[in-house]
Automatic annotation (TrEMBL):
Protein name: Aconitase/3-isopropylmalate dehydratase large subunit alpha/beta/alpha domain-containing protein
Organism this protein belongs to: marine sediment metagenome
Gene3D superfamilies tied to this protein: Aconitase, domain 3 (3.30.499.10)
Coiled coil location: none
Keywords recorded for this protein, A-Z: Iron
Length: 82
């Protein structure tokens, strides 16, 4: 049976010829996506002493809730995300 799209990508990124379901592998993502509740999540990280992300150039956060910002609170959150 052929490999799934995900299996092909994970094999490529892990440097292996092939991977199988259930196998534990280590990969580094090219791009990471988050959602626009990231401002709240960032505040929690700051509370535990984490003030920056390792690779900010690899993060994409689409603002897809309450756009344009309907309240000052949303506008502030969007500004913090940017």
């Amino acid at each position: 049976m052929g490999k799934t799209f995900a299996e092909k990508i994970l094999a490529l990124k892990s440097g292996k010829e092939s991977v199988i379901t259930g196998e534990i592998i280590t990969v580094s993502p090219d791009i990471v996506m988050s959602h626009d509740n990231t401002a709240a999540i960032a505040k929690k990280f700051k509370q535990i002493g984490i003030n920056k992300v390792k690779h900010p150039e690899k993060i994409v956060i689409p603002l897809d809730h309450c756009v344009p910002a309907a309240t000052e609170k949303y506008a502030t959150n969007h500004k913090e995300i940017r």
